[in-house]
From TrEMBL:
Protein name as annotated: Lipoprotein
């Protein structure tokens, strides 16, 4: 009788473990919702006026956009190439961009946009490029 109860308990634990495990696509979708609901409204960075996330489940890709109040010109573009990677590293360190998703194969395309929505800088985070950001 005790052996039978142990087997049933073990089976229940296994089922709960399997059910509670999320696959990468579910984590991607959950991250986008959480980012837009919790991180974006309170996000503060110099010159950033708005940030949003968009998920592409079939491509295992997340797009993060940072809209700024900067004009599109060479001075701002050059400054962005230096400051934007620092912002990304800070977000990775604070787990606002989760390493786990990147390590699971999710690609992050991160855009730093001028006030006219043209690209000042773009960074792509993958498992390989993550090492460069963490230096």
């Amino acid at each position: 009788m005790l052996k039978r109860i142990s087997q049933i308990a073990f089976a229940i634990i296994v089922v709960l473990t399997v059910v509670s495990c999320k696959n990468t696509k579910q984590k991607l979708q959950e991250y986008v919702v959480t980012y837009n609901k919790n991180i974006a409204p309170s996000f503060r960075a110099e010159n950033v006026k708005l940030t949003t996330a968009r998920g592409y489940i079939n491509d295992d890709k997340i797009e993060l956009r940072f809209e700024t109040d900067l004009e599109q010109n060479e001075v701002n573009k050059s400054a962005s190439v230096i400051s934007f990677p620092k912002l990304i590293k800070l977000m990775i360190d604070k787990d606002e961009i989760p390493r786990q998703l990147i390590e699971e194969g999710v690609q992050f395309d991160v855009y730093f946009l001028a006030d006219d929505n043209t690209v000042l800088d773009k960074e792509t985070l993958t498992g390989e490029s993550l090492k460069d950001f963490l230096k």
